[in-house]
Design a protein that fits this description.
9 helices, elongated, mainly alpha, 0% strand, Arc Repressor Mutant, subunit A, 198 residues, single chain
Amino acid sequence: MARRSEHSQEQIKEMVLKAAEIIVTEEGAGALTVRKIALEIGYTVGTIYMVFANMPDLLMHLKGRTLDLLLKQLNDIRVAEEVELQIRALALSYYQFAVGNFNRWSIIFEPVLSDQQPLPDWYQAKVTQIFAPVEALFQQLRPEYSAERTALAARTLWCGVHGVCMLSLQGNLSRAGLADTETAVGILVDNFIQGWKR
């Protein structure tokens, strides 16, 4: 077992989060426990609670790191200048992230805090960053609309894209009579954009 003096609190925090990411990626969120993390990093459970207030705090930071990973993938997209194609590419990239990182992606939507607890400001800022690229593209399509209306439209579309992704990854898309997820996402995006432009 490692001695506490071997690592700073920031280093231990990073070790905890990296171990948690590996556990979730390989085994799913249900396998994640503080005891398992402690065994992975060679520290005690008590040490983990020196750097995180509790398990919900740890999970919020894990969710935040997953959002960072998703944002990086969305920001790495390089497509044609046409706004419509850029929005479609973002939607498809979101689906591809979900496919390639299913357990990590799923943890974003795991309830952690009670309904009475607001999301931490730092976490809400990360959520805002995820929506920012598509909101900016929607604004280009209808610059006369307010930022609030644009954000509502962009986030509504993303809820639809997320729904298609969730059905697909749970093996239920065919029950809706759809065979190909990327085609379904493309149709959803194209039709939503046409409505927005009108």
